[in-house]
Fold these 2 entries.
Entry 1:
Amino acid sequence: MLIVLAQDITQEQKNNILNILRQGRCIVREITDAGQTIIGSTGTAGQKPEFFEKLPGVERVVPVKTAFKLVSRQLHPEDTRVQIGDVEVGGERIVVIAGPCAIESREQTMAIAREVKRYGAVLFRGGAFKPRTSPYSFQGLGEEGLKILAEVREALGLRVVTEITTPAQADLVMKYVDVVQIGARNMQNFDLLKCIGRLGKPVLLKRGLSATIEEWLMSAEYILSEGNENVILCERGIRTFEPYTRNTLDLSAIPVIKNLTHLPVIIDPSHATGMREKVSPMARAAIAAGADGLMIEVHNDPDRAMSDGAQSLYPEQFSQLMRDIYVISPVVGKQLDFGYLDKAKAVHHLKKARGDVQKAAFLGEIGSNSHKACTQYFGSQVSPLPMISFKEIFESVNSGKADFGVVPIENSLAGSVHENYDLLLEYDFRIIGEITLRIKHNLIGHPGTKIEEIKRVHSHPQVFRQCQQFLARYPHWEHVFVTDTARGVKQIHESGSNADAALAGKDAADVYGMEVLEEGVETNPRNFTRFVIISANSLSNGQKKKSSLVYSTGNQPGALFETLKIFADNGVNLVKLESRPIHGKPWEYMFYIDMEGDIDSEALAPVLKQLKGKTDFLKVLGSY
Ligand code: PEP
Ligand code: MN
């Protein structure tokens, strides 16, 4: 039941309600949703809802109709993010767990762990206690296997996941691993669920072989009701009549789960399909369907694997899959971050050195696209700092008020953001990273607004251009220009009138309690913006794949060609060339280059040296 409290409720009145519920053995949660305070309770303490409705300070009572309470979204509207070391499951970055089905030996485990980490997995899996269909099959290495997992964590910094099959293993598992997995066969082992609930470690709860979604969520409820909210759901295929695959992957469970619960959901396409060549297509589909992550079995020698070899990917296949996921993720508003763990380490290091939470300056209000770029790049590790202009972002990094700046550099439809190219030249910062977002514009208004009521639309001038086709249907609308999309939503929120609407991303609607009236109104859905991350210092966050430079050449025939020839002769691929006027020198230009490879690496040192010889001015903006 949800008890919606009156705005003017006193603390005494609230305590009275809480006492009645707690004495009636209910678990209670306080929730704030769209500015209202709500008490969520797992039961009614033997009373009728009307009883609570009559208590002072209560506005109304809403029953929670589902059997599961603590896992329901009604009782917890915000997404739960499960923190495992630096990894956050349920956030804006896709989490990929990879590793062998079973831990077979130290050498095998280390070799696979190195490979999956190299290709972007952020958690490592491997079974030490294997629940096998046949008693004669390999049953796992037991504690020896757990010790090997702990070694992987020490050596590679990957947090580890393993299955627990009985409460008797609890002490061992607590000692060695970071996430405990409850296997499909144990989904309804209620003693195990209760035990895990009390342990408090993050849990990966697989769906039972023939469990309904409700049964699965009831199992999660067991864990939450013992006080452990760190539950990740994992769909791994269910039994159907179809023999061509090991199980049938229920991808439709993803949107169903997202609607019913706040818990994150990941997909295990390995056990779902049972066949190597079916794993990657299903993994790609899972991300497109909105999964928070994947669990993939990978083996360096699957033909000789002691379990589930036929469904284990070769490391190279896993690498290809990760590259595909990297491309797909922005389409559904997420990211696969190849620098996830290295970046977190580098940011921790800075935090230690400076003793403060790192801040990243971005343009606009919370909920703007730049804000999203900021949270997707850093996760919740760095706190976003809103700014009112690009110049102010650069200034705040210069003065040390912000540690990083997040600035848009080009849009796939509108082209380069020239102001930021000029600012990159003016200030002496490094580009330390980049991130691409799909830009989706929505028509946003007050909840319940009818399209006929709208008279004014607020947004950034560029957004109006990107939504021309949609706007042509409403020629009478007045266009109000604002500095960023989230500000437009803030403005309509403040106006309080259904006559005001905005064009912005969904996040901004959520921040201000507004409603998406029409989704995806941009003319061309292939609308992407690339942002770069600037910093006064370089951030040693792993392998650098790309570099940006700016230079000018003499004003004589072939000058630009000679510089370009250097790249060609050294086999360096250029991915962007842009010219910008040099201020104060009419008709003279600076050339901005994005190239593949790390220009600061030893291998490319000759390129830099030759370029210096052929340019009047040269500045490396950064490698990332
Ligand atoms: C596993 O992850 O290795 C496993 C045994 O999975 P499931 O419980 O889904 O069969
Ligand atoms: Mn397996």
Entry 2:
Amino acid sequence: MATINRNVTHLIEDIEREVRYTQNYIGKNKLDKRVMQAMATVPREKFVPEHLQYHAFDDGPVPIGYGQTISQPYIVALMSDLLDLKPEHRVLEIGTGSGYQTAILAQLCEKVFSVERIVELSLQAQERFKQLKYKNIETRIGNGYHGWQEHAPYDGIIVTAAATHIPQPLIDQLKPGGNLVIPVSASYFGQSLMQVKKDLAGGIETKDILSVAFVPLVHDDE
Ligand code: SAH
């Protein structure tokens, strides 16, 4: 059996190094302290499948079944940072997956609403939230392309699968002053991580942050 010779301290060092490497793209050489604290607190090993435990503290994606992956920790930290969350904020996440990003967000704000279309992944994530005693996460099984109107508007929205365009329902469900963070496929340029800001007058400003590689956001099953 492979031994796990890494721990969360190594993971945090790797994220900090990756942030420094990419500082020209992301415009800073350190991420928000609260985000890094959350990354050090949430036990990633609880979100990684049993047989891949030795990858739990690697700064890379790991398969979680159903053709999906738990995202690279550096990207999870960066996207959380780009949301610019305050403790009183309410956030919508599309693509619960393993629930790891959801748990990080739950450390940073008042309430997280998370939508996942694959029933088994959502149920597994819900079980993890229960075991880890998260009380501020609400989940829904369905197509997140349409957001989650019932609890809108949100202070921040994060999509953890790559869309072909920015879904209009998500823009509509974002509060003025809020951020939408989403990977968007740009044909032969691959995918771009975008930060979409809604200003107080409802205007939209998009910023292209970094090239990324996400599984696709499924657009057409509802
Ligand atoms: N943040 C997750 C990433 C999981 S991968 C983690 O770190 O574990 C992206 C997830 O988005 C997958 O679980 C996939 O099933 C889900 N997904 C893709 N399209 C979706 C859609 N239209 N609505 C809801 N979830 C979707």
